[in-house]
Design brief:
Layout: H1 16-33, E1 37-38, E2 44-46, H2 47-53, H3 59-64, E3 67-69, E4 75-78, H4 83-92, H5 95-98, E5 102-111, E6 123-132, H6 137-153, E7 159-165, H7 172-185, H8 192-200, H9 202-205, H10 211-217, H11 231-247, E8 252-253, E9 265-273, E10 281-287, H12 291-294, E11 302-308, H13 309-318, E12 329-333, H14 336-352, E13 356-358, H15 365-374, E14 379-383, H16 385-389, E15 392-397, E16 403-407, H17 408-421
Parallel strand pairs: 1-5, 7-8, 12-13, 12-14
Antiparallel strand pairs: 2-4, 3-4, 5-6, 6-11, 7-9, 9-10, 10-11, 14-15, 15-16
This protein binds zinc ion (ZN) (2 copies).
One zinc ion binds at residues 190-191, 193-194, 208, 210, 213.
Length: 422
């Protein structure tokens, strides 16, 4: 057997773990401050949930899902995204009756069969927020503020926020008709994929990254959905704009930013960063007032945001994320009695909240000092005959080279002080 993780998956270990823990901590703390509670949905769901909730005609459902038949003959899919499971949970537990307004966040692995590349894996991780039961544009602003706050706190700069409205079932069809007409007239300039999509769902044509197609979208006469919004959709959008201005969050309106599925309504947004070249979106979201109904539930308004964590970790890595020196003490026994003394000391250190590492492999001081250095630990506590005679411990500072004999109390006091200044 080949000792290798499957293509598109990887182990997160060593120094990188600190980056992930930092990111997760920032997400959790901010979500909590904004009143979002964690929800943990299963890693796999019935395939139908994603077929309906993500959309039959999307690339995700058509090409990228990990779908299999389980031993009971059910079609099961590893979740490719987090929104459909969250809305499924909302409906299943009857929140629309007993507590219709919820704010939830999630964090965890997702699965898509894609070509792996930097920052894109087959098992990848996302965090996201979903606010269900809120119709007001203030909730759109709240979600954007939360996402923005997290990016800022992570120290990511060169961010931009792109916004658009894709209307509602009342006004969207007028735009779709006009868009189809326009694209028909420019059909010769479109790629094969777009020609096909043009018939099925012209809005999805705008997702095409092909340069010649992009050139068509940039034409001055290209129809903008902004010209087709109904009064209610326009009011929603204007209110959101004024709230974001009040919050000091800069944004640009990008009328070509769309989500092609029917249940997406009004607000769509994307956060972009300008250091990743072509793959510059690091999160996005929008309003999905039609999703609960598409899943077979009642009408429930919703707005959400999701971000891929791999890309953010890459950015943190490149920005030289300040790795906090983790304070730890190395315990070096010189003989069996010393081992006993240090094991007893570890209880005291544990109580004082001072992390430690006790190595039983050797009684040789040179071995211990080398090992401590390799682990990046600055302070070594030594216990042997000499220390026992003096009813204390020796503390060696590997940076200054200084070593002193201390009583247990003196040692604790010194370590506490060092930890604070670390
Ligand atoms: Zn409308
Ligand atoms: Zn195209």
């Amino acid at each position: 057997m080949e000792i290798k993780a499957p293509r598109g998956t990887r182990d997160i270990l060593g120094e990188e773990v600190a980056l992930w823990q930092h990111l997760e901590e920032v997400v959790r703390r901010n979500a909590h401050l904004f009143g979002y509670e964690e929800i943990r949905t299963p890693v796999f769901e019935h395939t139908e949930l994603f077929a309906r909730g993500v959309g039959e005609e999307t690339d995700i459902v058509q090409k990228e899902m990990y779908t299999f038949t389980d031993k009971g003959g059910r079609s099961i899919t590893l979740r490719p995204e987090g929104t459909a499971p969250v809305v499924r949970a909302y409906l299943e537990h009857g929140f629309f009756v007993r507590d219709p307004r919820v704010r939830w966040y999630y964090l965890g692995p997702m699965f898509r069969y894609e070509r792996p590349q930097a920052g894109r894996m087959r098992q990848f991780h996302q965090f996201g927020f979903e606010a269900l039961g809120f119709q007001d544009p203030a909730c759109d602003a709240e979600i954007i503020l939360l996402a923005w706050t997290i990016y800022r706190e992570l120290g990511l700069s060169d961010l931009s926020l792109e916004l658009n409205s894709i209307g509602c079932p009342l006004c969207k069809p007028h735009y779709v008709r006009r868009l189809r007409e326009y694209l028909e007239s420019r059909k010769d300039a479109l790629c094969e994929n777009c020609k096909r999509r043009l018939v099925e769902n012209p809005l999805r044509v705008l997702d095409c990254k092909n340069e010649t197609c992009q050139a068509v979208f940039r034409e001055a006469s290209f129809p903008s959905i902004q010209d087709f919004l109904c009064t209610e959709c326009r009011r929603h959008e204007e209110r959101l704009f004024s709230l974001l201005k009040r919050l000091g969050i800069p944004f640009v309106v990008n009328p070509r930013l769309v989500r092609g599925l029917d249940y997406y309504t009004r607000t769509v947004f994307e956060v972009k960063v300008h250091t990743l070249g072509a793959q510059d979106a690091i999160g996005g979201g929008g309003r999905y007032d039609g999703l609960a109904r598409a899943l077979g539930g009642p009408e429930v308004p919703g707005v959400g945001f999701a971000a891929g964590m791999e890309r953010i970790v890459l950015l943190l890595e490149r920005s030289g994320f300040p790795r906090k020196g983790t304070f730890r003490v190395y315990l070096a026994p010189q003989d069996e009695e010393g081992e006993k003394d240090l094991l007893a000391l570890s209880q005291v250190l544990h109580e004082a909240g001072i992390p430690f590492c006790l190595d039983f492999a050797s009684k040789n001081l040179r071995y211990h000092l080398k090992r401590a250095q390799k682990m990046g630990v600055r302070f070594v506590v030594i216990a042997g005959e000499e220390e026992r005679k003096n009813e204390g411990f020796s503390l060696k500072d590997l940076v200054s080279g200084e070593q002193m004999l201390l009583s247990r109390e003196e040692l604790l006091g010194r370590l506490r002080k060092e930890r604070e200044t670390c």
